[in-house]
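Re: beginner question about structure tokens

> Can someone show what the tokenized structure looks like for a real chain? I only ever see the sequence side.

Sure, here's an example I had lying around. Input first:
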Amino acid sequence: MPKITKIVVDRNLCIGAGTCVTIADKVFKMDVENKAVVLDLQGADTSTILIAAQSCPTAAIFLYDEDGKLVFPSKA
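And the corresponding structure tokens:
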């Protein structure tokens, strides 16, 4: 797994399920609109961040590597 250097939460896709916060509470938090936002990219290791992104029921979390390439979700 490449190093994650950017996390984007698509606010239009986020439904506020909060699974990302449950898994990586130092990386994500819910804002006043009950949408996930990124607190600290360094708040967890890469595998925890990936698990948090995978847990999102609407695939609203996008992970990018140092070259700006999309790591998750894959474009398959």
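Each token stands for a local structural state, so reading them left to right follows the chain. The first helix runs from residue 19 to 23.
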